[in-house]
Amino acid sequence: MARVTVEDCIEKVPNRYELLMVAAQRAKDIEQGSPLRVERDNDKNSVVALREIAEDKVSIEDLQKSLVLNLQKYVEVEEPEEEEIEIVAAEKELADLDAQFDTSMLLDEDLDDTMQIKDGMDDALDDINDSELSDESFDDSSEDFADEGEEF
Predict the structure, then answer these.
(1) Distance between CA atoms of 151 and 149, rounded to whole angstroms?
(2) Taking the model in full, what pTM does it have?
(3) Out of 32-46, 55-69, 119-133, 137-151, which region has the weakest mean confidence (pLDDT)?
(4) Do 49 and 30 form a contact (C-beta atoms < 8 A)?
(5) Is residue 55 pLDDT above 80, yes or no?
(6) How far apart are CA 41 and CA 3, in angstroms?
């Protein structure tokens, strides 16, 4: 079989630069293990790629897409609109508040336990106050006030 020349492929891909890029991409694909569509005939990958293009054995559009993806270094990601960001932030804040509210709720049993602890503290405070009120010195001073009031 005769060697393929660029003129045979120009009919399929009119732009020589584009032909070069597409053929190089197909040669890379062959190098990476893509199945051959024509017989190798002891040709290099670049010649096999040109022969496949000349004989319409490969899709030029698929090779172009593959080429773009391989050369692309930055994949553009769609960013959400500003309003969508605000809505998502508000939903997150509400979810956080809900979670905080749920964890701060006490069960009835916990509430009873808490009340018992406070009741015990109140009893201890009552005992302290009762012992202070039973002091005789306090009683004596109250009589002094009563006596002074009678003199007027």
Answers:
(1) 6
(2) 0.48
(3) 137-151
(4) yes
(5) yes
(6) 10
